Amino acid sequence: MRDASHLLRKFLRSVVLALAIISCCALAACSSVEPQGGALEVQLPPYSVRVLPESTPTFSADGYDATLRFRLTSTEPFPMRHLVQEIHQLVEIRRPDGKRAQEIYTLVEAFELTSHEVMGDGSHRYTLHPLQRDRHYEAGYNHNHEPGTLVMTTRRVTLYPANVKDQDATWLGFAHLPANRDGSVKTRVGANFNRRYQQRHRTQGVIVADDRRNARHYTLRYRWELQAQGKVKASFMLDMDPDLREDSIPTIDPELPPPSFAVGDHPSDEAEAGSPSSSDATVNDARE
Predict the structure, then answer these.
(1) With CB atoms 3.0 to 4.6 Å apart as the test, which of 100, 186, 223, 235 could cross-link to 179 if both were Cys?
(2) According to the 3-state scheme, what is the secondary structure of the chain?
(3) How many other C-beta atoms can be found within 10 angstroms of the C-beta atom of residue 46?
């Protein structure tokens, strides 16, 4: 009996140990095939993304103009073929009678990394199509405002690599997307937001993989105030990541007259893209 009892206890311990091993294996399998929200589906080599001004940003009493380029550098061939931007723009208008108004735009867009070059040090450099730029341009601030009006525009941008599919892209690789990958940011813009793009293309497509958790951020700020006797005081700043302050580009009020082109027009049609526009045409812009 003692031997039988000993054998039974030994058997039960073996069963418990086997069940414990099976349970651990099952948990490991679940974590590998069911990543948490925002987790990467591909392994990425070390990389960096730079936001590079094409030229010195300009602004006037009627708006601002900043044209940017992007460059992704990786230690190995990079598996993601797009850069995604999430744009959140807030326009706040303060009137002399104390009334305030706000307009908010959100946009998710994708740029295809079409150019690939292997550098002398063995690194891999990826850029947009040679004709594609990211142009932030607004005009029309000098439009039906009374003295004492203050307009403050803040455009916050989140930039990160991704893989995108089923988008309706321009021949330069630019596209509007309905939302980011987790649905936390959705495209909500009017018909004049990237007007040319919306006239020719559909907002569609999905992000199948991204590295949003390591995104870069930059902000554009434009402040416009109509003072007495119709004098305008304006300022603009393009501000990059806090840890890359050498990239920040402050500007001062040049006291220039409004640009000669009409509100919402493109000074150049070199590259197709676009940008947001206020529903009442007080603020218009176009990005190329």
Answers:
(1) 186
(2) CHHHHHHHHHHHHHHHHHHHHHHHHHHHHHHHHCCCCCCCCCCCCCEEEEEEECCCCEECCCEEEEEEEEEEEECCCCCCCEEEEEEEEEEEEECCCCCEEEEEEEEEEEEECCEEEECCCCCEEEECCCCCCEEEEEECCCCCCCCCCEEEEEEEEEEEEEEEECCCCCCCCEEEECECCCCCCECECCCCCCHHHHHHCCCCCEEEEECHHHCEEEEEEEEEEECHHHCEEEEEEEECCHHHHHHCEECCCCCCCCCCCCCCCCCCCCCCCCCCECCCCCCEECCC
(3) 9
Q: pLDDT tens, 151-182?
A: 999 999 999 999 999 999 999 999 999 999 99
Considering the domain architecture, whether residues 184 and 271 belong to the same structural domain is answered as yes
Q: How far apart are CA 132 and CA 83, in angstroms?
A: 13
Phi, psi of 120 (to 5 degrees): -60, -30
Report which of 184, 203, 215 is spatially closest to residue 110, judged by C-alpha positions. 203
**Judgement on whether residues 138 and 276 belong to the same structural domain of the protein:** yes
Give pLDDT tens digits for 188-234.
998 888 889 999 999 999 999 999 999 999 999 999 988 877 788 89
- The pTM for the full model equals 0.72
**Is 72 within a domain?**
no
- 152 and 107, same structural domain? yes
Q: Which of 155, 136, 215 is nearest to 181 (CA)?
A: 215
Domain total in the chain: 2
Q: In terms of domains, do 100 and 234 share one?
A: yes
Residues 181 and 245 in one domain: yes
CA neighbor of 84 nearest in space, from 136, 178, 157, 162: 162
